[in-house]
Structures are given as structure tokens and as C-alpha cells.
Design goal:
Blueprint: E1 4-7, H1 13-23, H2 27-31, H3 33-41, E2 46-52, E3 55-64, E4 71-79, H4 88-102, E5 107-110, E6 122-123, H5 127-135, E7 139-150, H6 158-166, E8 170-173, H7 179-189, H8 192-201, E9 208-214, E10 217-224, E11 231-237, H9 246-260, E12 265-268, H10 274-281, E13 284-295
Parallel strand pairs: 4-5, 11-12
Antiparallel strand pairs: 1-2, 2-3, 3-4, 5-13, 6-13, 7-12, 7-13, 8-9, 9-10, 10-11
Helix pairs in contact: 7-8
Length: about 300
């Protein structure tokens, strides 16, 4: 099959979203194709489109790491189902690798680039993508997982919030004026990536953040929707405030927002403390991702 590759333009975006709705094999991903594309294109990066017979056949998006600009990320690659196994995906990936190398990258990751990402890595159910990564010289170096929370069974936080209030802790929805303090708290206790995700969760449609404070000091936060509307995270509590029940309250408040938005399930993304989420809301490990790297 003959095809050509050119830089992705704004004019290509509507067709790109349509392609992703068809090419992303997992229904939950296809349903959020427009949000995934918008989130990934919100950061500086590279993008290429493959065209065959006058129609969009495949796309790739990439970026430099927000922590280390010698590392490149492939954020999304999708090829239309009816033109797969024609070399389009391989050619798009090679073009992205070259572009990232031209910007100074010495290695490329097939992994999420917080705060702008749609997946931690390649979902293991995208078996052709896993096979392609191995065939094209990428090495698996990490595994990540999501947990799924049933939003129809989320318990009330009223009593827990009353107990916290008796100890001087206020829990409420974060507002625009809270962003500087939240960003400072996230950077000091967690990472710049989390700071970016929290900042992007406040005041944006399909996203939100709740915060716990005592005497005006941030003790913890929980956010959702920064990467995708159905995804929860990140969430963090100050070490000195752990054990008070703040995390469970913040988590359930966010999940309740997502339930009220019409979701029956939420993905708790890139999970660390599995036992906490399993105990707090009965979440279960479901999506598993392989993360890959390749030296250029």
C-alpha cells in the first residue's frame, strides 16, 4: 500500500479524533477519543499523519519528558483497522523517533508523560502494539496498573467529614484561588507532574479537585479528570496528616462527582497503594500496562 506521512496540522484534528474512535480497540478508550486527543495536544510536542488514498490512515503524537528533555515519549499511535499490517505504524513510529531525536532525545519511552498522558503505557490487551514494541527494539522495563472503582456503591462522607471538622480539618471543593497553594504542596511533597495535573483539574469541564485544610494549610488533595474524565488521580496527603481519614474522604468526594457526571465506573490511574483503594472503595486491579524504552 502506498501512503505518505506529513506533519499533523490543526485541520487534521477532527479526522484524527474519528480515526481514534475507530482504531482504539477498547471501548472505554474509544469513548474518550476527543478528550484524549485534546489532552495530548495541549502540550508542546510532535505529531505526524499518514494518508492513504486521500484519507487519514494513521497518526502519532510525541513529546519530550517534562522532567528530563533528553527523554522522548510516544504519547499516542493509532492506525485505521482496515490498513493495518501495511507498515504504516512502523513508519509513523520511525518518523516520531527521528523528530524527538532532532529535539535532543537520546531515548524514547512508550509510556505516559505526566501531566499530559492518556495511559501509563501500552494496555496489555492491545496485543498487536505489545508485539510491535518488541519487534521494533523496545525493551519492557516497568509494569503499571489501574484499579476500577464501582461508582454505584460509593458511601457517604458526612460522618467522616464531621469527625475531621471536630479536629479542625475542613474538606471542600478546590477553587481557582487554591491553585497556587495546591501546586506548591504537590511539588513539595510529590512531583511536578502531580502539580500540573492538580492545576489542570481545577475549574475545567469534566474535571475537579477537592482539598483538605487546617488553619489555611493544605493537608491533602484529590483530583480527577486531568487526563481523562473517567479517570481519578492524583491524590496525596501530607505525611503528618496521614491516618486521619483525609484520603478516604477526598477520594469518595471525587468519585461521587464522577458518578454524578454519569459514570458508573472510574479508573484510578497509575496506582501505587493498591491496599488503600481496595479497602476504601472496593476497587480492583483491572487494566495493566507495559512501559517500554529504547535508546536512539
Amino acid at each position: 500500500m502506498e501512503f505518505s506521512i506529513a506533519a499533523l496540522t490543526d485541520a487534521d484534528v477532527p479526522a484524527m479524533v474519528d480515526l481514534c474512535r475507530e482504531a482504539l480497540d477498547l471501548p472505554d478508550d474509544a469513548a474518550e477519543a476527543d478528550q484524549i486527543v485534546a489532552r495530548l495536544r495541549a502540550q508542546p510536542g510532535i505529531g505526524f499523519a499518514a494518508t492513504a488514498d486521500g484519507e487519514l490512515a494513521g497518526v502519532v503524537l510525541g513529546s519530550l519528558s517534562h522532567r528530563d528533555d533528553s527523554i522522548g515519549h510516544v504519547d499516542l499511535i493509532a492506525v485505521r483497522r482496515d490498513v493495518r499490517r501495511q507498515g504504516i505504524g512502523r513508519a509513523l513510529l520511525a518518523r516520531a523517533e527521528g523528530a524527538l531525536a532532532g529535539r535532543g532525545a537520546v531515548e524514547v519511552l512508550l509510556a505516559g508523560n505526566p501531566p499530559y498522558y492518556a495511559w501509563p503505557g501500552i494496555d496489555v490487551r492491545y496485543t498487536p502494539a505489545v508485539c510491535a514494541a518488541n519487534a521494533l527494539g523496545y525493551e519492557q522495563d516497568r509494569t503499571a496498573w489501574n484499579m476500577t472503582a464501582d461508582l454505584t456503591t460509593i458511601e457517604s462522607t458526612v460522618e467522616a467529614e464531621e469527625r475531621l471538622a471536630a479536629g479542625g480539618v475542613t474538606v471542600r471543593r478546590a477553587e481557582a484561588g487554591d491553585v497556587p497553594a495546591l501546586v506548591e504542596f504537590a511539588r513539595a511533597n510529590f512531583s511536578d507532574g502531580w502539580a500540573g495535573e492538580v492545576s489542570d483539574s481545577v475549574g475545567r469541564p469534566g474535571a475537579g479537585c477537592h482539598v483538605a485544610l487546617r488553619d489555611g494549610e493544605v493537608l491533602g488533595f484529590a483530583a480527577y479528570g486531568s487526563s481523562r474524565p473517567s479517570w481519578f488521580g492524583p491524590m496525596g496527603t501530607a505525611p503528618a496528616a496521614q491516618g486521619l481519614g483525609i484520603g478516604g474522604v477526598l477520594l469518595r468526594r471525587c468519585l461521587r462527582d464522577q458518578r454524578d457526571a454519569g459514570f458508573r465506573q472510574a479508573q484510578i490511574g497509575w496506582v501505587g497503594p493498591v491496599p488503600f483503594y481496595a479497602s476504601a472503595v472496593g476497587a480492583r486491579i483491572e487494566r495493566v500496562f507495559f512501559l517500554y524504552r529504547k535508546e536512539l
